[in-house]
Amino acid sequence: xTKIRVTKRFHFEMAHALxxxxxxxxxxxxxxxxxxxxxxxxxxxxxxxxxxxxxxDFHELKMLVKTHVTEKLDHALMVNRLIDHRHLEALQLxxxxxxxxxxxxxxxxxxxxxxxxxxxxxxxxxxxxxxxLYETITSFAEWVASDNP
Length: 149
Known about the structure:
Largest sheet: 6 strands, mixed
Order of helices and strands: EEHEHEHEE
Helix content: 10-25%
Low-confidence stretches: none
Strand order of the largest sheet: 4-3-1-2-5-6
Structural class: alpha/beta
CATH class: Alpha Beta
């Protein structure tokens, strides 16, 4: 069987703040994130089938990521649960799209968050190979499955 890696790119806007951080990123600020999801699997072989030659239909991958990742993160504010509750209450007066998470919302931790969401949702025989998340045009972090058994 032929094994192939397939990558799909996504884009979303999200704000975050790093709780207790000693630099400017302790303040609420946003990024135009670019996300690359790479999956790995056997090429489907069934002559005459419209999906013959695919690892996974790009549209199916797009809808999976859109439904479970980008629609959840786009135009949201991600903050650590350790934020002062008075500040959180004030923020909730300005927006309903606040994601309160149990981790510091760094690019690295957001990658793990996305991986944990996607891994169980992929079809049988398809695995998550890697995720690359660009926080800026010049800065990204990458999660690779083989590094995270």
